[in-house]
């Protein structure tokens, strides 16, 4: 039987993450599939356009900003669906369209960063007593099959370190787990979400990320989330370069005060 998301689940993903699960294109200034970002010429052209549009002075800063955004609009809803609703959301790179709509007149200062439309997706549910296997499969699909190729391509094309890009993904994942733990409907659900975070960020083998080692495990301490899911303020390990776009430094910026521009 084909599985699906409930109306309520779809609405939440749309309201919280801006995710459009439909394939009718909307008028856009520019759009590109995630798959096209694996192609050097298409990726360079898109990064240069996006950099101009958001006011980023370098491809490094643009690629870094884009990965942060992608983690918020694609990775976070997929993980939310897995950990809160127990529904694996399969997103294929070719079906993920990054869209930059025109800024609405009523909100000219809204974000200029892209939104995600997904033209086709799959849903999987864990079989009874098989949640661990299902989770392993879901995590492998999302990371090794989806995010890692994008991170590799953007890292190589924009010459920005993979460590920065993985930390960007992680800093977008942490709030989703934190919020989900805080608002879990019962202690069992909170424990499951906490365990999912620990598994992804600390215990999952590198193979699920298409890497030799888990790229998140060396970075998770600095996110402030401990293995129990408690949160403390910490500095990032890497600076994500967004200050070059926004002229602001975040509270987690690791750059020493004296080196800031
Ligand atoms: S200040 Fe924070 S958000 Fe800004 S570039 Fe540094 S790490 Fe990134």
TrEMBL record:
It comes from Cohnella thailandensis. One of its GO terms (molecular function) is catalytic activity. It comes from the Bacteria. Pfam families: FhuF. This is (2Fe-2S)-binding protein. InterPro entries: IucA/IucC-like_C. Residues 65-193 form the Aerobactin siderophore biosynthesis IucA/IucC-like C-terminal domain.
């Amino acid at each position: 039987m084909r599985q699906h998301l409930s109306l309520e689940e779809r609405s939440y993903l749309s309201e919280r993450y801006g995710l459009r699960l439909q394939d009718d294109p909307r008028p856009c200034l520019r759009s590109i599939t995630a798959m096209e970002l694996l192609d050097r010429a298409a990726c360079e052209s898109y990064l240069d356009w996006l950099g101009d549009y958001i006011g980023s002075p370098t491809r490094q800063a643009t690629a870094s900003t884009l990965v942060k955004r992608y983690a918020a609009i694609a990775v976070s809803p997929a993980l939310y669906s897995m950990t809160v609703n127990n529904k694996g959301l399969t997103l294929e790179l070719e079906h993920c369209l990054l869209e930059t709509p025109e800024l609405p007149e009523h909100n000219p200062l809204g974000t200029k960063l892209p939104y995600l439309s997904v033209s086709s997706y799959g849903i999987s549910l864990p079989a009874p007593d098989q949640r661990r296997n299902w989770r392993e499969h879901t995590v492998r699909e999302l990371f090794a099959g989806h995010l890692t190729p994008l991170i590799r391509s953007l890292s190589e094309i924009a010459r920005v370190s993979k460590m920065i890009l993985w930390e960007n993904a992680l800093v977008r994942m942490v709030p989703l787990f934190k919020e989900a733990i805080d608002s879990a409907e019962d202690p069992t659900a909170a424990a499951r979400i906490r365990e999912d975070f620990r598994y992804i960020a600390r215990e999952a083998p590198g193979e699920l990320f298409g890497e030799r080692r888990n790229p998140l495990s060396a970075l998770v301490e600095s996110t402030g989330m401990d293995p129990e899911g408690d949160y403390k303020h910490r500095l990032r390990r890497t600076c994500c370069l967004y200050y070059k776009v926004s002229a602001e430094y975040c509270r987690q910026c690791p750059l020493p005060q004296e080196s800031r521009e």
